[in-house]
Amino acid sequence: MMLRTLGQSDLKITPLGIGAWAIGGGQWKFAWGAQDDAESVAAIHTGLNRGMNWIDTAAVYGLGHSEEVVGRAIRNLRIRPYIFTKGSLVWDDSGTISHNLQAASIRREVEGSLKRLGIDTIDLYQIHWPAWQGQPESASPGSIEEAVGALARLRDEGKIRHIGVSNFNTQQMQRAMKVAPITSLQPPYSLLATEVESTILPFAAWHQIGVIVYSPMASGLLSGAMTRARIARLPDDDWRKRSANFQEPLLSRNLRLVERLRTIGERRNATPGEVAIAWTLRNRAVTGAIVGVRSAGQVIGISDAADVNLTAREVEEIEWELIPQSSLSSVA
Fold this sequence. Notes:
By secondary structure, the chain is an alpha/beta fold. It has one domain (10-331): Alpha-Beta Barrel (TIM Barrel), CATH 3.20.20. The chain has twelve helices and twelve strands. An eight-stranded parallel β-barrel has the order 3-4-5-8-9-10-11-12, surrounded by five helices. It has a two-stranded antiparallel sheet with strand order 1-2. Helix 5 (170-177) links the parallel strand 9 (160-166) and strand 10 (184-186). Helix 1 (37-49) crosses helix 2 (65-74), helix 3 (103-117) packs across helix 4 (144-156) and helix 8 (250-268) crosses helix 9 (272-281). Mean pLDDT is 94; it is low at 326-332.
């Protein structure tokens, strides 16, 4: 795969990176159901063998378990991929998750991540959330400024190499940038989540902040493998059962969109998931896309997405499916 420079850093990353949210396993608030660790390691190795050179995880994924699995997968590799992880979400002994931006908490998180990952330095450490679950920033201890300041000190100590942010708006990025250089932003971006296009992506491009988008396949919904029957069988601890995109009235529209992606993919010998990912990569502000995988087979189904260069006509075909049916009736 070709390499792209992430922001103003020295990180040269592939357009696709391995996402490790789902491999955190089941039985926590934002789980994807049970997951076999051996399959997770195989998925990571397959992604690396197919040219991907970075892995994105977070301490909270599986309450530390995802980082442990990533650490197991990269142990003894001759060439280690870049490791990106995130903090600000902490949990207690009961598994209850809370949000903390205090310097001492951020330091504990970084040191905990280093231990679970089994590495000496984290290539990119990101503040996972500026606030938590729709609450104001004041509801959490600490502040963006305090957290970024703590990360700057940890960078100077050599425990992290670069500072990133996730789920930040433009004002929050501006505040962070006043404390220390920000290498990257990680926002949600897919055909079903386009809110960042209007101001956030242009802001990042203008300030030369790299962008690695998450959920480009809308949490698997646009992969081409999701059906009504499969959705109905999702386990109770899969957070997607509670997602509006996986329920009516949006589900019917979303499955029609998948069939459009499938049609375009058949012309290009690509899967629906690869077409969905390619749609995000076409945006010039986007440096790379995080593709969550749980098995080697899933990696194979998306690994050529960066080679799918959509035409303007194909983009129009895809986006036509997102126009509300009521609007089409009024136009007719």
